[in-house]
Design goal:
The structure holds two protein chains of two kinds. In chain A, about 40% of the residues lie in helices and about 20% in strands. Chain A is α/β, with parallel strands linked by helices. Chain A has one domain: Vaccinia Virus protein VP39 (Rossmann fold). By secondary structure, chain B is mainly alpha-helical. Chain B has one domain: Non-ribosomal Peptide Synthetase Peptidyl Carrier Protein, Chain A, CATH 1.10.1200.10. Chain B is built from four helices and no strands. The N and C termini of chain B lie close together (about 5 Å). The chains are: A alpha/beta, B mainly alpha. Chains A and B meet through α11 of A and α2 of B.
Chain lengths: ~300, ~90
């Protein structure tokens, strides 16, 4: 079987401008939907959890999957407002945590509101990042959705991502990835129906499980895989409920039509996960290193 | 999921709301909407259907299942089901 090569050095995935379209609507505005730690990806819920508890459970899950406890260097690709970076260095003894983001607001927030010396946050694409030293592990939560545009060859774009992550890691290092994906949506569904790309995240589109596993062949083995789509039903609902509870405050920051767009996004996406049109994958990968003739 | 204490609207109210909603969407008079016709005959796709369920949540003041429009595919069937306080 042939492997896929990513070829040239063109930029894949969403541009800085597109990322900023969604995430730089304003720290204060999105905070009205989020829990206190501002974790902007699906939580991991158990009965009786508050949203805060479920988000911490999710962070700790990924940290455990890559064996990050006490590690020297951990990379967070698409670090958002930094809750994972904070958890890594604050509760799990990680000595140096690097976060990559394309959102200026997020960099500013991490530097101002978290401001821990063990955390390094960079306004940089993973395609351009050249670390001085390799990492013990990588975590990426809710960023993979931005790594391929709707009209490009997704397997090639994802391949490029896995190649970079392979280079970022020490031999045998692990990566824990959390991403939305298409579930029972036909591959030939017309783009106009895919409101994700149209309205919510320009230049982004969801992956399919088969494309992810195809793209990582000969670079990473899949150690563990879960589809926790019900976790996103609850998380999207939690954002929706909180934003609506905060309607008066929201109206002071943004016009009604913008607030309604975000409310519609959260509620409609909770429906999509509920129906199985979208899945929520948590995938643990381990870097493949040659160990026999013909294995790499 | 439901919170029946918030709102318990009679079938006719729900029926009327859905009729008005579809009429607005299709740009026709509410009287022209046949409440026994299935939603897809009005050209409603799955994205339109879940959007309608969301707006219906706001009207009823309680959470609804996104598969309602598929399980109860006419205004008649859905308003009757929802009038019982179900979600």
């Amino acid at each position: 079987m042939s492997t896929v090569s990513s070829g040239d050095d063109a930029q894949y995935g969403a541009s800085k401008e597109s990322i900023q379209y969604h995430y730089d609507i304003g720290n204060d505005f999105l905070a009205l939907a989020q829990e206190d730690n501002r974790t902007y990806s699906a939580a991991m819920w158990e009965d009786g959890d508050t949203h805060e508890q479920a988000q911490i459970r999710k962070l700790d899950y990924h940290i455990a999957q890559i064996r990050a406890e006490g590690a020297e260097r951990i990379l967070d690709i698409g670090c958002g407002w930094g809750p994972l970076l904070k958890r890594l260095v604050g509760s799990h003894g990680v000595k140096h945590a690097v976060g990559l983001t394309l959102s200026r607001e997020q960099v500013r927030y991490i530097e101002m509101a978290i401001g821990l010396p063990q955390i390094e946050v960079r306004l940089e694409n993973w395609q351009d990042y050249q670390p001085a030293e390799p990492f013990d592990g990588i975590i990426s939560l809710g960023a993979f959705e931005h790594f391929a545009k709707i009209d490009e060859d997704k397997v090639l774009a994802y391949r490029r991502y896995f190649e970079r992550c392979h280079q970022f890691l020490k031999p045998g290092g692990r990566m824990s990835l959390q991403t939305m994906a298409y579930g029972d949506v036909p591959r030939d569904r017309k783009h106009k129906d895919l409101f994700i790309a149209r309205e919510v995240f320009p230049e982004s589109d969801l992956p399919r499980l088969a494309d992810i596993t195809r793209a990582c062949e000969m670079l990473f083995e899949v150690e563990y895989l879960r589809n926790d789509r019900q976790d996103y039903v609850k998380t999207m609902r939690a954002w929706f409920d909180k934003l609506r509870q905060n309607r008066d405050k929201a109206l002071k920051l943004r016009p009604l039509e913008v607030i309604e767009r975000y409310e519609r996004l959260y509620r409609t996406m909770s429906y999509s996960f509920d129906l199985g049109a979208f899945h929520l994958y948590r995938i643990t990968f381990r870097r493949i290193d040659p160990n026999r003739f013909g294995s790499a | 999921m439901s919170n029946n204490a918030v709102s318990r609207k009679p079938s006719e109210d729900i029926n009327g709301w859905m009729r008005d909603y579809l009429a607005r969407k299709l740009n026709i008079a509410p009287e022209q909407i046949d409440t026994t016709e299935s939603f897809d005959t009005f050209g409603l796709d799955s994205a339109d259907a879940v959007r309608m369920i969301g707006d219906l949540e706001d009207f009823l003041g309680r959470r609804l299942s996104p598969s309602l429009a598929y399980k109860y595919p006419t205004i008649e069937a859905m308003s009757k089901y929802l009038a019982d306080g179900k979600s």
